[in-house]
Amino acid sequence: MKRLSSLMASAVILLLPLASASAAAPDPAALFEAKTVADRDGALAALEAAAPSDPASAYAAGAGEFFTALEILAGGLHRHGFDSPQSFMLPLMRLPVPDNPNPEPLTYEEFRAILTAFRDRLEKSAATLGSVPADADIGMAIDLGRLGIDLNEDGQIAPDESAVAIMAALSRGGVQDNAAPALTFRFDRADGYWLQGYAEFLMAQADFWLAHDFRSMFDGSFHMLFPRAKLPLQATLVPLDGGMNGSIFSSEWRFADFISLVHLINWQVVEPERRQAARRHLLEMIRLSREDWKAIRAETDNDREWLPGPQQKGANPLTGLEVGEEQVQAWLAALTMAEDLLEGRLLLPHFRIADKGINMKRFFDEPKPFDLVLSLTGPAIAPYLESGKILTGGEFDQIQRQFGGAGFLTFALWFN
């Protein structure tokens, strides 16, 4: 009996750490509702520590790492007095960063460092989200009015820095305010694939930039984006009043500098492996989107869905759109088309060349200097031209028509 009691005591002692770990699983709400960066970072560290043994913690930590990647980018931009161009043509530069009255000078090397830190944090997020088992039972109700990032590096996460306020500012192309409606969604396993896919998409953009030397473009036009950061041509080309808070197309001087920017996109390849990686990120994004829709279509509930399937009726409160089977089928067809282009099975047409198309796999995997204007006019894409099956306008138009009045781009930004 004494031996049995001893064995039972030993078993209880051995099980105590497991029971304690289960009881002490971090609460994701501490991450998603934090009002200070210190509190948020503490909650994220606890979730990261629990992630290897707890799928819910890994899911929340991966999401937290994604949002802190955006914060790294926003903080770097704010530090140097970024003034958003409010243009879809510069997608990495659309964060509604508040004005900084005392910006620090910015160099080309420092800007590359900001992009690198942003990209590396996204990679960590994708890896953490990828560690969540496919069959994990995830259900996290998150109020996007409470979830936020520190846009101005003051250590606080204020209401006007919430996800709702940021999305409202992006949709208006202006600065954020407190008038955005409350939005609460229940995020499930499918939404983890969605967020991981967006991390891959943003990594592809960052890696494409970092694959090249864009110093001449930075020196010759980036005062348009950082008008008080002591860039080389600030004293010569930036108006004395700073010319702040104007979109590219509503400001003469910014429009002129945008033309300079386009002209100076003649980038030499300095890290070819990054351009190759950009294609892999895009292919992984396509794979994750397919996993996302497989998981969405297997759902039987209809509880505050971020991205609903055709079986989950009702307009989404964020987009005002309802998803039907027609849109899902069109999206899956678009994914196949994009994958075929990236794998070189389908060639991208060029308006000047009738019998050949651009092999996009070779464009990424056999990188040559990237000249935007000469790519549009033809000479720069000549090395990638091949005979084969070429994508036709009719094929893409057929997919677009299935998205109805809201348009392909609206659904694509939402569907990922």
Describe the structure.
By secondary structure, the chain is mostly helical. Helices cover 52% and strands 7% of the residues. It is built from 16 helices and eight strands. It has helices at 2-23, 29-32, 37-50, 55-79, 108-130, 163-172, 189-210, 215-221, 234-237, 252-263, 272-298, 325-342, 360-365, 372-377, 393-401, 408-415; strands spanning 139-143, 184-188, 212-213, 266-269, 348-350, 353-358, 370-371, 385-386. The strands form three sheets. The chain has a three-stranded antiparallel sheet. Strands 5-6-8 form a three-stranded antiparallel sheet, with no helix packed on it. A two-stranded antiparallel ribbon has the order 1-2. Strand 5 and strand 6 (353-358) form a beta hairpin. The protein is globular, with a radius of gyration of 24 Å.
Task: Describe what is shown at a glance.
The chain has 416 residues and is mainly alpha-helical. It has helices spanning 2-23, 29-32, 37-50, 55-79, 108-130, 163-172, 189-210, 215-221, 234-237, 252-263, 272-298, 325-342, 360-365, 372-377, 393-401, 408-415, and strands at 139-143, 184-188, 212-213, 266-269, 348-350, 353-358, 370-371, 385-386. The strands form three sheets. Strands 3-4-7 form a three-stranded antiparallel β-sheet. Strands 5-6-8 form a three-stranded antiparallel β-sheet, with no helix packed on it. A two-stranded antiparallel ribbon has the order 1-2.
Task: Set down the secondary structure blueprint.
Layout: H1 2-23, H2 29-32, H3 37-50, H4 55-79, H5 108-130, E1 139-143, H6 163-172, E2 184-188, H7 189-210, E3 212-213, H8 215-221, H9 234-237, H10 252-263, E4 266-269, H11 272-298, H12 325-342, E5 348-350, E6 353-358, H13 360-365, E7 370-371, H14 372-377, E8 385-386, H15 393-401, H16 408-415
Antiparallel strand pairs: 1-2, 3-4, 4-7, 5-6, 6-8
Helix pairs in contact: 3-4, 4-5, 4-7, 5-7, 7-11, 8-10, 11-12
